[in-house]
Sequence to fold (204 residues):
Amino acid sequence: MKTISCMNIDESLLHSFGAEDKDYKKREAVFREEDHALYYFQISEGKVKLNNYNENGKEFIHNILGKKQSFGEAMLFLNQNYPINAICLEDSRIIRLPKNNFFEMIKQNPDLSLEMNACFSQEIFYKLKMVQSLASENPMQRLKGLLEYLKSYHDEDCQKCFHIEFTRQQIANLTGMRVETVIRTLKKMEKEGSIILKDRKILY
Fold:
């Protein structure tokens, strides 16, 4: 099934409404949990992880996003503080458009609103599917739900070509499984032909 990636607004359109390019260093925060939402963010170069930590300091990674993908825009509509952090995984260049300019751009380009609604709807759908999978006692079902969710953010419409950026430990944290269980289950999935393991990469 072809999925819709996160918003990818033409950069020239963003700049025409006052967007600026901002460079970030590896491990630098674009925003942190409880910061007020002031901008629309879109990645021009680099990678960003969306995460937070529990009371014991354990990291929970929600997603890893790359070039031409956006993040955090839902908070602009809700007028809420961010419930997550956005941290650069490598040196990155990110386009940011002030909130008021963002809404003016949408008013003048109503087709963007329809596209954004489709993106939000897709995100809710795949999150619900992932939650359903994580409730399963079957490790393979849990992993497949997670992989489908991660792939839903990208345009790859092919079999076993999407590179899962997460480490085995990060996958374990996301699914509530032990690392050893994740490794065993990935090997079973490779044997059944649903993924490819190549040079420690997971292709789904």
The two ends are 13 Å apart (CA to CA).
